[in-house]
Input
Amino acid sequence: MSIWLEQKPLILASQSAARRMLLANAGLSIECIPADIDEREIQQASGLKNPGKIAALLASEKARYVSLETKDRYVVGADQTLALGEQLFSKPVNSAAAVEQIRMLSGQVHELHSAASVVQNGELLFSHVSVARMTMRSLTNDQIVAYVELAGDAVTKSVGAYQLEGVGVNLFDRIDGDHFTILGLPLVPLLGFFRSKNLLAV
Output
């Protein structure tokens, strides 16, 4: 049973299985329509360096793109950036890139900035960024290679080359932050916004 009170489902401007799962498990009726935008081009054109602002921009642009094609519907856009100091990371393109990326993160504390935006008819109604601090274990090269082989294709599916809900949890000594933020969606603030608009039954 859905707690979403609109006649038509909430649109998620993404094909992320994790984000869809989070929204569906929270009781919302979901339709996924991925945004066909060039994220790196938008980021470069913006000139932004702050990882939280970059995540917020990309989340909003994804939602806005889909919103303009779906009249009167509520559209959620989401994005996540990973920052090690001033260095930003993207999804590794292959397993070799994942090994190198984890080698750089090994023994360090990095930050995940997860953003969510809600857009309707091209108008930004809500934007929020949450941050989690991730302390990765000091890993040997053999441990990194073994992890990447075990994780398989999953290493290319997320920034950081890990998924905390899977074998990636073994990489960490300490995690400070909201579980939903780590999975890529600041869910509690997002649900609070929908509740403030009387869009949820609970």
Remarks:
- The chain has one domain: 10-196.
- The two ends are 12 Å apart (CA to CA).
- The chain has a mean pLDDT of 95.
